[in-house]
Each structure stands twice: as structure tokens, then as C-alpha cells.
């Protein structure tokens, strides 16, 4: 599965990091980013973490997380 984040939409509510802490983190300004990938806006998600990413995307109030099954 491919995941895309749109930091410009992020309101720093914290849900994504709570739901999928292995995937999502925040900048010092509170904007979403991928763990260990400060500049990336797209990432392939390992199968064992896909359910958490889907839940994070569905619960994101600003729609800053998108996913696409490959």
C-alpha cells in the first residue's frame, strides 16, 4: 500500500501518531511527517502496519493522509 501525507492540510491533532506511531511523527511545528523520513510525502507501508494507516487516514479530520492499495 502507498501512503501520501499532505502536511499543508495537517492541523496537528495527534490522531495519526496515536493510531500508527511506527509510521507517523510530527515536525517541531506539529505537522505530520513519516517516521525517519522528514522530507518524504509518499511512502510504501508494510502489510503489518496497513490497517493502522487506514484507520489513521479515515480518522484524520483534515484529510492530510491518503492511501492507495497497490
From TrEMBL:
Keyword Cell membrane: no
One Pfam match: Fer4_13
SUPFAM superfamilies: 4Fe-4S ferredoxins
Keyword annotations of the record: 4Fe-4S, Electron transport, Iron, Iron-sulfur, Metal-binding, Transport
Keyword Iron on entry: yes
Domain 4Fe-4S ferredoxin-type residues, every copy: 1-29
Cited function: Ferredoxins are iron-sulfur proteins that transfer electrons in a wide variety of metabolic reactions.
PANTHER family reported in the protein's UniProt record: FERREDOXIN
The protein's name: Ferredoxin
Amino acid at each position: 500500500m502507498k501512503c501520501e501525507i499532505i502536511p499543508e492540510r495537517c492541523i496537528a491533532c495527534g490522531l495519526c501518531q496515536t493510531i500508527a506511531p511506527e509510521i507517523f511523527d510530527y515536525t517541531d511545528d506539529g505537522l505530520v511527517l513519516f517516521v525517519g523520513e522528514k522530507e518524504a510525502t509518499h511512502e510504501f507501508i508494510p502489510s503489518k502496519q496497513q490497517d493502522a494507516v487506514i484507520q489513521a487516514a479515515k480518522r484524520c479530520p483534515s484529510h492530510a493522509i491518503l492511501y492507495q492499495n497497490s
